[in-house]
Amino acid sequence: MKREISQTDHKELNERECESISGSLEDKTAFRSDAPPAADGKAAAFHQCINNQGADSSISMAESVTRHAITPDIHQFQYLLNGIDSLDLGLYVEWRSDWKRRLDVMDKMKQKSREKGDQVINLPSGRKCIFKPGGKGENYRFHLQFEEYNLYIGKAAQPKSSPNVYLSITAKTLWLDGIDKALSWIAEDLKIIGGGSIKFVQVSRIDLCCDFLIPGGLSYEFLSVHKVTRNKKGRLYISQNQLQTYYIGDAKSPTELRIYNKGLEVKQEGTKLWFLDLWKRETPDDIWRIEYQLRRAVLKQCVINSIDDLKKKQTALWSDLTTKFFSLRLPDNEKVERRTIHPFWHAVQQSFGQSIPGNEIHRTYRQEAIAPVEWYLSHIDGCLSSLAAFQGITDRDGAINELHKLLQRRNNEKEFETACIKKAIQRGTLKKKGDR
Any idea where the domains of the chain sit in the sequence? Predict the structure, then answer.
């Protein structure tokens, strides 16, 4: 039987463990090791033993470190896989001129699905999807479920300050097909649904992870002794006195860490056995996952807006998370920041590759522009061609001249300057006189 251990459920844990888990933990040492620091020589011997022997080592830890009897540790580990397991995208989509008519059709389909349940839709392209009765929050009224992703569509014909379409790609699609192929499919589907054209793709949520084979698995005792983190919230799941999932942060946090028995999940669900081919394993036993979930707020701080931003910063982002948000360290110094990175965690840090010097993540907490310059240019370009078509103009210079005339009639120079100053103040980008 699986159950969650929270701050109010401590009967199965000893007093030291109770101080370290779940809820809002007030004691600043709650996520610091209680074990006495090891002698430097022993810590070095321990580090060398793991590095020299690696995942295939059969040497007992007792041969090089005598205090493992009181400090739980892992004996062997083997890297298997890294990548993106979950990806949600905000799409800025411009729909065709008959969008209102298509909205009416989808409203009728939504009502039908509410009355009779999920409706299977056959698209003209030959692809199939399920029209669901619900939506996503207040912004996305319609939900279409494809085999490769879930698509949530808002009512706006043109994107404004936020995406009007939300896309959640399945883990199987991400691992087996990749992001680029998934986006090519969605681009075709949007054309079929309503002549939709994607103007910008914004990263809204992502799960970065790596998988390791750890014979014997991980224990709560090992994690509690070696963990270093400033986050005071956490929880864990145990079953038959075995750790299943260990959380740092909570489900609503901008950043949440999950360390869990991925092999057990694959075995129990039975729908993700394709992971065995990726892992190059015949059995999912003893396979553990380290996974960081990042929401839009923290992605914005890291200036990760587009897919290109994500690809460029993925390695640096992983390095930042596995160093600053949470790490596992040897209890070899009273000051946690000076403790030696645990060999297993060092392998975790390196699973996405070596971060390029100078490519570190620099977080910004000021209010940023909603989208990068490229998105505004793309949006302006799309609007310009629509204006030109409405005016019967077919050349770009003629369209730009016509736009200039119309804008001059619409507002004067002073009004435009005032509007620019207001937006620059709101975004923190106002330049002082003399600045370039």
Answer: 2-82+209-352, 96-195, 373-427
